[in-house]
Design brief:
This protein is of the alpha+beta class. The protein is 37% helix and 19% strand. Keywords: Endoplasmic reticulum, Glycoprotein, Glycosidase, Hydrolase, Membrane, Signal, Signal-anchor, Transmembrane, Transmembrane helix.
Length: 832
């Protein structure tokens, strides 16, 4: 019997394999196209939901989009009982010591909106501003705000309050106020019609609202009329538009001068509110000042309707959106920040909502030029003894230049005092924000890394534009490309990686997520492909920053024959002076004296170790061939921390310098610096050195206080001296790091578990009570807290890293609930 031919079967097998290959090839291409579409859609929706906001945090209330040269609004108010009131009572920019009994957001979600309360005791007025976003259309949707004023108890019911909405539009486009029925002003709504390339056509309406307007039988009423709403439309050069109060006062002076010259009778003076009234001149312009005067309580709405949305907003829409936003925030806050014992009373919930809302409500969008010195003067190498004097002379000699313009989307430390981006603050700010909205946090991280230059440098303080510079003394405005700052954004990268792999989602899940209209707070971690694409894009920036640190902040080991495990891993902050090391973030914390080019800083080495550890985890997925580079650096740092910085005599880590015999010398000022290897997670839980660090933390004669960990030991000769900025006060960011690491030790088996557990429980309680008590008493969070009294001090309304108290309250109560040992995130999974 003849054997059947094998050729057809072999041909069939080849065809099957070919079909499988083509199917896989086109399937992969389709999947990649599908993934690209999803990434693009997420980016589009993310940008739209974040486009508008109260992104002018330096103002009590100011709305703008995340677009350069666009529409901006700002709210002003002040009493007008006397002829001098306007000069002293007009509120606009957030200021310290301006007669406020607290102000800020009671609830706020960046993607929806929220409610802010302002308690202006000097003006006898409580103001509530409610802000919401209404998605829809191709230009970022619409938004609306409700402004409500209520006289405080004891204030006369006929108190007169002037309220001004200051509206500007930069760039190409038009903005025109529609004329009212009365030449003296408007009885009803005020409407502005505008358009621009980025926003399309839009309408801004200021509603008539509720409230009584004062009347007068004075003879000038025939000229001035009663208290109508007036609009003055103007055209100014763009570089002056931010100077709102200056422009308002200039226009008021012109109106008042003209009125006084023609109509003022000293024997029979009219009421102040009739004198301090702008002339009604509505029309086209890039500045529109809308002024109205109320007697007693008042309320009105600001409605921005994008034509692309196809529907104009109404006050009814605003009421509904405010209610929905409030209900949504309350439910979500309780879910995201599940506050644990002993802080379960309602007062702590209200406190936590306020602290977090003011952190996230302080996010701003900044655009403008920065002052930078790129002279690269040889003195900036800081290689010679006396380098700080040579560098100071070079700074005085060199002329910095304006660079940019740049843009930055960031949270801020303090609305009245630090309304701009600070690099080392930002990583702490984003820790609670990442819990709430990881995609928002990563959007801010991306915005910061977009500022990086080709070498890997990011300016530590972002002072963009004339408005930002107006809040900073000239000597502090210039940024230097050899100055570093703690790389705290790596905290957020680590959090993102951890959550990405725990979520372990898929592309279909994200499609469903988007189609159901779920908020875009976690789209980048709901499936691993989208998250990995983000990591792939940002990894080169992280890598560049890491090697910039190694290149520019290196410490000298070889020149002084120092004995160390690694000859490469030692670091020194550049920019030191005798009293300060501003680049470290710890400003006046005691360092070796005098400064020396052979100095080594233990906090900086710890930060570089944290970067290496983080990059090794990312590289396992993004660049496996580079993992060994980072682990080698980390190994060298872990050894050199002991070899170069550990003092057995003092039982802590210390900075180092070179003595008069050219020998390595430790200089120990026990305090935050001594804790950094522990704070950054570089100490093993069974290390004998850990026991001594815990003993230092818990020693009441050294760092421990009933209110938190002091920045410097009570026994140090510099304690409480000179500026006393980082020389005793309690800082919440460092205490947060300590609480986090104490928790990690307390929940792992080891020789120091019980010690860490006790310290964790007491420190967590002390810190929360310290911040809460000052907040309850003053209405503010504070920059730092007094170690002797627990009172808040320095900058008020410091809702930056002090808001970490929300995360602290949500941490476990180890006395109440046994906690299992935490599991390290598994960064490489088989399915990858």
């Amino acid at each position: 019997m003849a054997q059947p031919s094998r050729q057809p079967r072999q041909l069939s097998l080849v065809l099957i394999l070919l079909l499988l290959f083509l199917n896989a090839l086109f399937g992969q291409a389709a999947a990649q196209e599908d993934e690209a579409i999803i990434n693009s859609e997420i980016a589009r929706l993310n940008n739209q939901s974040l486009l508008w906001g109260p992104y002018r945090p330096n103002l009590y209330f100011g709305v703008r989009p995340r677009i350069p040269k666009s529409l901006m609004t700002g709210l002003m108010w002040g009493k007008v009982e006397t002829y001098t009131d306007y000069q002293t009572s007009l509120r606009y920019t957030c200021e310290q010591n301006e007669g406020m009994k607290g102000y800020g957001w009671d609830e706020y979600d960046t993607r929806r909106g929220g409610v802010q309360s302002i308690h202006d005791t000097e003006n006898g007025l409580d103001i509530t501003t409610s802000f919401v976003k209404v998605p829809g259309g191709a230009n970022g949707g619409s938004w609306a705000a409700r402004v409500k004023g209520q006289l405080q108890q004891g204030v006369p019911a006929d108190r007169k309050t002037a309220v001004i909405l200051y509206v500007t539009q930069e760039g190409l486009g038009t903005l025109e106020a529609v004329k009212g029925d009365d030449e003296n002003g408007y009885e009803g709504h005020v409407t502005l019609n505008g358009n621009s390339a980025s926003l399309g056509d839009y309408k801004l309406v200021l509603t008539k609202g509720k409230g009584k307007h004062p009347t007068s039988d004075h003879k000038v009423t025939k000229v001035r009329g009663h208290a109508h709403t007036v609009v003055q439309s103007l055209t100014y050069q763009e570089e002056f538009l931010w100077q709102a109060k200056g422009i308002v006062f200039k226009q008021l002076k012109e109106s008042v001068d003209a009125f006084v010259e023609k109509h003022f009778d000293k024997q029979d003076p009219p009421p102040a509110w009739q004198v301090f009234q702008l002339e009604n001149r509505p029309g086209a312009g890039n500045v529109h000042i809308i002024q109205r005067v109320f007697e007693g309580d008042f309320e009105f709405d600001i409605l921005f309707s994008s034509a692309s949305a196809g529907k104009e907003l109404s006050s009814g829409d605003l009421s509904r959106e405010i209610q929905e936003a409030t209900e949504s925030f309350g439910e979500r806050f309780s879910s995201v920040f599940a506050i644990k014992a002993p802080f379960t009373a309602e007062k702590y919930n209200k406190f936590g909502r306020s602290m977090f809302s003011n952190l996230i409500g302080g996010i701003g969008y900044f655009f403008g030029e920065s002052v930078v010195d790129r002279s690269y003067a040889p003195e900036y190498e800081e290689e010679d003894e006396g380098f700080w004097e040579e560098a100071a002379a070079a700074r005085a000699r060199n002329k910095p230049t304006l660079e940019g313009p740049y843009e930055l989307f960031t949270s801020i430390p303090s609305r009245p005092f630090f309304p701009r981006g600070f690099l080392w603050d930002e990583g702490f700010h984003l820790l609670p924000i990442a819990d709430w909205d990881i995609d928002l946090a990563m959007e801010i991280v991306k915005s910061w890394y977009n500022l990086m230059d080709e070498d890997g440098w990011i300016a530590r303080e972002q002072i963009m534009g004339a408005e930002a510079r107006s809040k900073v003394p000239e000597e502090f405005q210039t940024q230097y490309p050899h100055y570093a700052n703690p790389p705290t954004l790596f905290f957020i990268i680590d959090s993102f990686i951890d959550r990405l792999y725990k979520a372990n989602g898929s592309i279909p899940a994200v499609k469903e997520h988007l189609s159901q209209g779920v908020p875009l707070s976690s789209a980048s971690i709901d499936n691993i492909e989208v998250g990995l694409e983000y990591l792939g894009r940002i990894y080169p920036f992280l890598r560049r920053q890491f090697y910039w640190f190694k290149k520019t902040q290196y410490g000298d080991i070889k020149s002084y024959d120092r004995e160390a495990y690694s000859s490469r891993e030692a670091y020194r902050w550049r920019g030191r002076t005798v009293p300060h090391c501003l680049t470290s973030g710890l400003d006046d914390y005691p360092r070796p004296q005098p400064p020396h080019p052979g100095e080594l800083h233990v906090d900086l080495m710890s930060w570089v170790g944290l970067m290496a550890k983080s990059l090794a985890n990312i590289a396992k997925v993004i660049a496996p061939e580079e993992v060994e580079d980072y682990t080698k650096v980390l190994d060298g740092i872990e050894h050199n921390l002991d070899d170069l910085h550990w003092s057995e005599k003092d039982g802590c880590y210390c900075d180092a310098t070179i003595d008069e015999f050219e020998e390595h010398q430790l200089v120990c000022h026990k305090g935050y610096i001594s804790l950094f290897p522990f704070l950054t997670g570089l100490l093993k839980p069974d290390s004998p050195k850990l026991g001594k660090i815990l003993a230092l933390i818990g020693d009441e004669e050294e760092l421990w206080s009933p209110y938190g960990i002091r920045s410097l030991s009570k026994k140090d000769e510099n304690y409480g001296s000179a500026e006393n900025y980082w020389r005793s006060p309690i800082w919440i960011n460092i205490n947060y790091l300590a609480i986090t690491q104490l928790y990690n030790v307390a929940t792992q088996e080891g020789p120091y578990q019980e010690t860490a557990r006790d310290l964790y429980q007491r420190l967590r309680k002390n810190i929360v009570e310290t911040i809460y008590n000052s907040w309850e008493e003053t209405g503010f969070a504070w920059e730092q807290y007094n170690p002797e009294t627990g009172k808040g001090q320095r900058t008020q309304h410091f809702t930056g890293w002090t808001s970490l108290v929300v995360k602290i309250m949500a941490m476990d109560d180890l006395e109440a609930v046994p906690v299992a040992a935490p599991v390290e995130p598994e960064y490489v999974k088989d399915e990858l």
